[in-house]
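[step 3/7] fold_predict: job queued, chain A
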Amino acid sequence: MSPLRSLLLALALGSALQAAVLDLETATVLDLQKAYDAGLTSEKVVAAYLKRIEAYDHAGPKLNTILVVNPKALDIARELDAERKAKGPRSLLHGVPILVKDNYDTYDLPTTGGAKALAGTIPPRDAFTVARLRAAGAIILAKTNLDEFARGGTGTSSIGGQTLNPYNLEKIPGGSSAGSGAGVAALFGWIGLGTETGSSIRNPSTKNNLVGFSPSEGLVSRGGIIPISITYDRAGPMTRNVTDAAVAMSVMAGSDAADLFSYKGLGHTPTDNYLSALKKDGLKGARIGVVRELFGQDAEDQPAVALIDAAIKKLKEAGAVVIDPLPVGANLWAITRETNYGNAENKPALEAYFASRGPAFPIKTIPDMVATGGILGRLKPRYAEEQAAPPITANAEYIAKLQGRYVLRDFVHEIMNRWQLDALVYPHETKPARTIEAAAPNKGETPAPATPDPATRIVGNGNRLSTATGLPTFTVQAGFNTDGVPVGMEILGKLYDEPTIIRIAYAYEQANPQRKLPPTTPLLGVEKLEY
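[step 4/7] structure written:
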C-alpha cells in the first residue's frame, strides 16, 4: 500500500472512531436517549450535574437552589444503566436526572415544604407524579428550595433561605418553584418539577429563561403534594426546551384515586409522549389572539413589551394568523384577580395532607404547625386568616367565586370559538423583576396581607388568566430585560388541548431560540460528554 493510501485510510478510520458528544447545555431528552442507546451512561450525566451543584450551588455564587442531594443518585444511575443494557429503556425518561420541588412527597428523602416545622420528616410514600416518574426510570437527583409551603414569589424558606437568580443575583428568581427554576437554568438537573396555585410554575420559568408547562385542571394528580388549594393547585415540569416539557408531562399526567380532580382528565392523556405535536411548521395556519389588556402600559413595562412584540412578529413570520389586538370586552386583569379563593380551601386541604403522612406525623392542624415556631413569620397572618375562615360548605363568598371560575372559563372559550383561535398569547409579566432587598426587606419576615386588594395591583405584574380558568398554558422564552432577567410569553389553549399549545410552543421555539446559560454559572468543562 502506498504511503498516500495509508495516510488516507488512517484519516478515515480516525474520523470514524471519533467520539460523539452530548452537550448538556443544548440537548433535548430525545438527544439524551440517543446518546444512552449509543453507549453514554446516566452515571456520567449524574456525575456532571453533581459537579455543577458543588461548584455553583454550594460554592461560587451559592445559588441556594438545592435543599438535599439524593445520596444514592449515582447508585441508582448505575442500576438503571445496567437495566438498560439488559432489558432496554423503560421510557424516554430512563436515566434522566430530575430536580423535585420540596413540596412533592418522596419516600426516600425529606419532604418539608422548606419549613423547619417539618425538617427531617420523610413521607411513607411518593407523590403520585414522583412514583410515575420513578417507574419511568427517572432519577430523583435532589429536592429543591421554594417559598415556604409554596406561599410566595421570592424563593425563600426557613430551611433553605433565599434562592438566588443566576441571571442577576440581586433579583428574585421567581417563586414559589424557585429552586427548580434556578436549578434547571444553571444545569443542576435535566428537568425540574414545579407546582403553582397562582403562577408558581410560570413565574420562575419566566425569570430563569425556561419553558414552564401548567396543565389543564385535572390532567395531573396533586396527590402527595403539600397543598394550598383544592381547586387551584397544579403540578407541572420546568425545562430548558419544549420537547423536554412535553415528554415529562406525558409521564406525569394520569388519574389518581387520591385526587378525584384527576378523573376530569380521563381520555386526555397522550399515547405518544406528545411527540406528534413537535412539528417545526406547527405555526402554519395557526390562529392566535393577542390579549393586549394583559400588557403593562407604564414606561418600565416597555422593554419587556418590546420583547413580546418581537416574539409575536416571529409567530407571524412562521405562518400564524395573528389577531392583534384581540377584542375581549372585559377587564380580564381585574376579573382574574377577583377569582382567588385559596384561603377558604387551605385549612381542609392541609389537614387532609397532614393525615396522609400517617398517625406518627406530629402535625395534625395549622395551629399545631404554627405552634412549633418553625415557619416564617410572614406566613402567620395568612394561617390565622385561613384558620378563621368559615367551612367551605357554608361559605357563600367561596361558593360564588368557585362558580365564577367556571363562568370565566366559558367566557374565554367563547372568545376563542368566536374568533376560531387555537391559542391566546400575552406576557407572563412586563414589570421588571424586583430586587431581593425590595421584595423581602426584613429577610422574608415582614407580614403581608393574605389577600391583596386587586385594585392595588399594577397590570403587568404577573398574569393569572390560566390560574383563574384552569386552562393549559406554556411559558416560553422571549429574551432578556435590561437588567439581564429573562422575559417569558404565555401561550394559553382550550381545556385539555395540550397538543395544540405544544405544537405552537415548539414551532415558536424553533423560530425564535432564546435559551442562554446564566452568566454566573459558566461551563466547567464537564458538560460535553463523550460516548
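[step 5/7] annotate
The CA atoms of residues 37 and 85 lie 9 Å apart.
The longest helix spans residues 396-418.
exit 0
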